[in-house]
Every structure is written in structure tokens, then in C-alpha cells.
Write a structure and sequence with these properties.
17% strand; four-stranded antiparallel β-sheet; 32% helix; single chain; TIM Barrel; 16 strands; binds zinc ion; 11 helices; alpha/beta; binds (4S)-2,6-dioxohexahydropyrimidine-4-carboxylic acid
Length: 357
Amino acid sequence: MVLDSSFESITLRQPDDWHLHLRDGAVLAAVVGMTSRVFRRAIVMPNLSPPIKSVDAARTYRQRILDVVPKGDAFSPLMTAYLTDDLSPDELELGQREGVFTAAKLYPANSTTNSTEGVTDIRAIDSVLETMESIGLPLLVHGEVADPDVDIFDREAVFIDRYLIPLLNRFPELRVVLEHITTEQAVQFVESSLSPLAATITPHHLQINRNAMFAGGLRSDFYCLPVAKRERHRIALRRAATSGKPCFFLGTDSAPHVRGAKQSTCGCAGIFNAPCAIESYAEVFEEEGALQRLEAFASEFGPSFYGLPLNEKKITLKRNDCVVPSLIEVQNTDKCFEHILPYHSGETLRWSLCEDV
Ligand code: DOR
Ligand code: ZN
């Protein structure tokens, strides 16, 4: 990585996004270029409606993504399988052998968006986890209990105690990513674990705490799952991301929802940060005096966890103001327009991406 002496530009190996929602149809077409302008690869979440539960579904979804990647962008979607109570281990094995599945995603049933078909009893999928452990297919975990009796701000910490620790004990060789961590408990657990365990960290959990959802009124645009926590957790996440520890790497959890879906009486969880993700991470690393560790977090620790090659190409970020679009337009088949409000909508950020070098 090259950081110029006056900290005016950073050239780094092209990053990957290890946790991304692209959706399908008109939304997919509207958003994919915002990721492919920056990232070479992305782990694509399978929580479509219906979810991606078979090799065929993942293969055709991958093709639909590739069909709408802007010309000139080299972008590889890495597909994931959505675990259910009865997904067969053979399907995962087939998907890995055929180069379709890079990982499988565990959503505890009813824990988040499109998780109703998720896993109701984690112990009941032990045969699947055993196969994944033996074939080296990583398990990606939405680490929250869905138990309505558990306070929403405690659901990640309770998940670690109730389910993750026993799971790692049962499958000591299973490669596991605890996705989009939000608490100091998760940070401490991941950094001290002896298991092949890593965690992704989003830009928004590095920048906002739970006050953002209630600043001057109810702000559904800052509602995501796991929800942002108290300030002390945000500080712990910033330390983790900028620590240079390989168990923490970039995953944006960019999750587009059209305005109507965010602002309904039961608004969807998700923050759409693709238009400004790398720029937001750069701000955080700069504020923490850790720009020299951005490349490892964004471009090295993820591939090394997944056993994939590092990207060859470089990108350059310059200290030039960049204005985040106010709204992203989505054109439906009936020619109606809907809109997605991006994270940092209309704001000016300090770093901007410039052309390849
Ligand atoms: O905020 C979130 N949005 N968290 C998730 O776990 C799912 C995601 C989505 O699919 O919108
Ligand atoms: Zn997600």
C-alpha cells in the first residue's frame, strides 16, 4: 500500500466486500454498479424471497448479477447457500465442488429480513455443519437470537453464549464468520477465540451508535440488524477494525430497501452503504490514525480467511470531497420509479475514489 507523505492519497490493493445484499430484478440492476466500481469480489447474501437454497438457484442468481454489472467492471459474485432446517449436506457439497457455493449462511429463523425459512434449531443441523467442517466450506452467521424475550440490544451477546460457543466446541475445525459484529462482547470473543473464527465489520457500525435511530425523531434509515449499540461498543469496533488483527475484515452489509419499505409501519432493517462504503471506512481509519492498516482490513484478511488469492489490481483514494447521492433511482418493469436512500445521503465525505492505476 502506498500512502503519500502528506496523506493526500492512498493506493491499495483492490478490496473485496465479504458481506453484501444485492437483491434481484430492478433493485439489483440499480445497485450492483455501486459495489463493482470499487470491489473485485463480494460474498452475496442468499436471503432473497424465496431464498437461495440450491445450486441451481445460486447459479442462475449469479448469472442475473453478472448480466447487470456495468461494462468494464471486473466483478465476481461469490455465492452463498441459505441454510434451512432441512437443506441437504449433499447440496452444499455439490455446490462447492461445482464452484458455485463459497460459503453457507445461517440465519436463525425470524432474526432478520427474509429469515422466516432460516434455522429453527441450530443443533438440528449438525449433520450439515459436520459436512461443512469436513469439506472446508465456511459458515457465515447472523449472530443474534430471535427470542423475543431477549432485549434487542442483548441479542448478539446472548447468541454468542447460547449458540456460538457450543457450536465452535462441537465443530472445532469449522471456519466461521460472525457477520456484522456490533458489540464489545463479540470483539473480545472473536479476538480471543482459538477457533478458525473471524468477524466482518460494517462502515455504519463504525460510525453510528444507537442514538442515530432516534436523533430528533424516529429515523428508520439507521435501522439495521443487528441494531447499532451504545457508544462504548462502537469504540470497541473501531479498535478492532483498525487493530491490524486478521480476524477482523471488511463486510459492508450494504442492504438496499426502497423508501416505502423502510418507512412503513413495520420498516425493513438495512442500511444501503454501497455508494460510500470504502470512503466511509477510509474516514474511520484516518480518524483512528490507522490509514496504513486500511489495506489489510479491506483487501488482505478476507481473502486469506477464505483461502482465495489477493486481488492484483489497485485502487486509489484521494483526499477530495465526494458528495454522496441523495437518492438512488430504481426503475421497475412498469416504468414506475422508486428510490433508495443511501447511507450518508447528500453528505460530503473526505475521500473519493479515483481512476485505476
Ligand atoms: O440490516 C439488515 N439487513 N440486517 C440483516 O441481517 C439483513 C439485511 C437485509 O437483508 O436487508
Ligand atoms: Zn446482511
